[in-house]
Amino acid sequence: MRAWYRGARWLWLLWPLSLLFALISHLRRQLFALGLKRVYRAPVPVLVVGNLTVGGNGKTPVVVWLVEWLRAQGYRPGVISRGYGGNSEQYPLVLNDNTPAAQAGDEPVLIYRRTGCPVVVGPRRADAAARLAALGVDIIISDDGLQHYALARDIELVVVDGQRRFGNGRLLPMGPLREGKWRLNSVDAVINNGGPVQPGEYLMTLAPGELRPVSGEGKTPASGATVHALAGIGHPPRFFNTLQGLGFILDKQIALADHEPMRPAELASLADQPLLITEKDAVKWSGGHNDCWYLPVQACLPAEFEQMLSKRLKELNHGN
């Protein structure tokens, strides 16, 4: 809800519900902490990439970066995900080359296609982690799941949108927070997507790659070209600003809700110009435009973050 980030006064009407949410969340955490609710411990280390707010903050590029970085360190990583937006008749679901986004969700399919690493989707992350461990991975990355306390974790990373941060700083439904900002004090690192950074945060930037065809039949659009842009991500203006920074002239900017599917019939009015979309939207492409291209992005993280992560992994290895 945009109202969370505009400071709308009417949200105070939801304050009693936020108090109830806080109470339920606290009781739930206590049940896990006291051992009254079961916690699953995977046979391999678990690294959670999550956030405090609802909506996208840039977790997926971090997960892709982690998969590639861990491989370079000699690990065999795999990824588990809730698979938001997907609908499967059987969980946990192991992705393959033919798994559609409609079944597994757009983010898991993007991660699988980009990295080729094992990816397992399921609403019960403990079940997904057990299935993934059986595939021979030696470290599990949980895409989201910071608040999924039924799965034990060894490293926690939180991704924060550097521009929007925490909105009005209130818990759901009065604000966008799933947990209070106090939670940042217990995680291993806070990754700031785009800045400006606060003390103790690691700055992540997103480096755009070359445009790739989705249904591109003509010449690849170049800087200076007039195009239409569409994004169904957590913060579409970030994508539009990136395109403008690359020199594209945006005729129309279509902002969909995070995970919202594109409808081919609705793209008919955009046929007069090339259409540029995000990689996340490209994995759920269902047609409707004959000159569509997606822009991949690569997460860039500082050496200090790599050093911190290397140290934490060594501590885990020495503890086993």
Automatic annotation (TrEMBL):
EC number of this enzyme: 2.7.1.130
Protein's gene: lpxK
Organism of origin: Oceanimonas smirnovii
InterPro entries the record matches: LpxK, P-loop_NTPase
Protein function: Transfers the gamma-phosphate of ATP to the 4'-position of a tetraacyldisaccharide 1-phosphate intermediate (termed DS-1-P) to form tetraacyldisaccharide 1,4'-bis-phosphate (lipid IVA).
Catalytic activity: a lipid A disaccharide + ATP = a lipid IVA + ADP + H(+)
Family: Belongs to the LpxK family.
Taxonomy, superkingdom: Bacteria
Residues holding ATP: 53-60
Pathway of action: Glycolipid biosynthesis; lipid IV(A) biosynthesis; lipid IV(A) from (3R)-3-hydroxytetradecanoyl-[acyl-carrier-protein] and UDP-N-acetyl-alpha-D-glucosamine: step 6/6
Protein name: Tetraacyldisaccharide 4'-kinase
